[in-house]
Amino acid sequence: MINNKVYVFNAALKHRKGIWRRIEIKDDQTLGDLDSIMRQAFNHDDYHLGEFFSGRVWKSESLGEIESDGSGAGAKKKIDELKLVEGNTIEYVYDFGDDIQHVIKLERIVDTVAGAKYPRVTSKNKIRNRYCVSCKKIQKKTIATWICIDCSEEEQKQVLLCEDCLGEEHEDHYGEELLL
Ligand SMILES: [Zn+2]
Ligand SMILES: [Zn+2]
């Protein structure tokens, strides 16, 4: 009988550490499986390459690329082949153009739970409401769901907006939906 273990990872955006997901995956599952749950957990569109690294993205050994269809050099590598111990981190980059980097830390190794489907997301950061900066100017509190990338770059701070304000006042700008 094979006694599978479950790796409990904390995966966080490298440049927005408040955004994290706890991900559980079995030791005989693969980096392809981990890539697929990372894409879901962080709402990444599904068209780009992902790549895992043994340490820092681009600065350490590549564990192989993974295509959007789940194939690729790293896809079949099993989680237990990574020889991780609790506290170790690997990193993941999604979309070599946008270069969205994630730090994935092994929190602990536990037993499988009967009936559970792996990989799975078991928890995530609390959602901290942030408000639209345009609405704020007219004393309205509206939850921001977008970031204007053009204005954020120009003002050197995050310009967060509600959907209406993004559409009305920033229609020629590049906006991205906020990951919460
Ligand atoms: Zn607004
Ligand atoms: Zn703008």
Can you give keywords for this protein?
180 residues, alpha+beta, Structural Genomics Hypothetical 15.5 Kd Protein In mrcA-pckA Intergenic Region, Chain A, 2 domains, seven-stranded antiparallel beta sheet, three-stranded antiparallel beta sheet, 10 strands, elongated, binds zinc ion
Provide structural commentary.
This protein is an alpha+beta fold and 180 residues long. The protein has 2 domains: 5-124, Roll (Structural Genomics Hypothetical 15.5 Kd Protein In mrcA-pckA Intergenic Region, Chain A), CATH 3.10.290; 133-177. The protein has 4 helices and 10 strands, in the order E-E-H-E-E-E-E-E-H-E-H-E-H-E. The chain has helices at 31-41, 133-137, 149-155, 163-169, and strands spanning 5-13, 16-26, 50-53, 62-66, 89-94, 100-111, 120-124, 146-148, 160-161, 175-177. The strands form 2 sheets. A 7-stranded antiparallel β-sheet has the order 4-3-5-6-1-2-7, with helices on one face. A 3-stranded antiparallel β-sheet has the order 9-8-10. The radius of gyration is 19 Å and the shape is elongated. The chain starts with a strand and ends with a strand. The structure holds zinc ion (ZN) (2 copies).
